[in-house]
Structures are given as C-alpha cells and as structure tokens.
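Hi everyone, sorry if this is the wrong subforum. Our group has a chain we'd like a structural model of before ordering constructs, and none of us has done structure prediction before. Sequence below.
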Amino acid sequence: DDISFLPKGAVIKITGLGGDITREDLKEKLGTDFEVDITKEGDIAFVTYQKGEAEAKIRFKTENFGKTLMEKINKVEKLTIKDMEVKITLLEGEEETNFLAEVAKDLKTMKNKSKGHKRKNFGRGGGGHAKKSRN
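Answer:
Right subforum, don't worry. Here is the predicted structure as tokens:
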C-alpha cells in the first residue's frame, strides 16, 4: 500500500496507559504541557486508542511533528496522565512503516465505504433506499 502521502516522523506512542484514561485526557496532556493544538483543525490527525488499553498511538498532520514534540517531551523527567506514569516514544523505522500501512489501508477502506453513499441513508445497511414518488 502506498504510504507516501502520510507524513513521516509524525506518530508518537504512549504506553503505560489504562484505567479511566480517555482520548481527551491524552489530548489535554499534549495541549497543556506541550503546546499541541488539540482543536479540531489543530495538529492531531488521529488518535488510535480505546479506553482501558495500555497503549495509544497519536498521528499528527505534519511531517516530523512527532520528532519536534519528542524534543520537548524528553526534557520532562516524568510524565503522568491521571496519576499513571506513562512513556512516550516516537514511532520509527519498521514500526512506523507498519503503522502507516495500516492507516493507509483503513483510510482506503473508509473511502471505499463512503463512495456513492449519501449521508441520508446513514446507519442502515443494504438497499434501504427512500421511496421516490413517481410524479
């Protein structure tokens, strides 16, 4: 799969998560402590994380954003989110390539799913089209 359109150096991994930590908590931490723009139009492209999981991946929109961010993060001795000590690393090399390939695949699937579907029939699978009046 083509991953050339996805920025490199733009994915960080947060480990040591769990408990009640939510995506919002992760974003808030990055926003408050490291000046990441966490608004909808901001720096974050996607957060791969479900509450309760031990690990999250955050993909940013700009090339090397993660690298630059890591320079700030590495200056901090201890990182805690909701009293849990977490570790943040940059995805690099094969790990990054594999993750971006997954992302590319997901984006493609999403694109194919949304092809030719008007938002109106959202939620109903199959051919449940609205009846057209024959006037």
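For your construct planning: The CA atoms of residues 17 and 84 lie 7 Å apart. The two ends are 48 Å apart (CA to CA).
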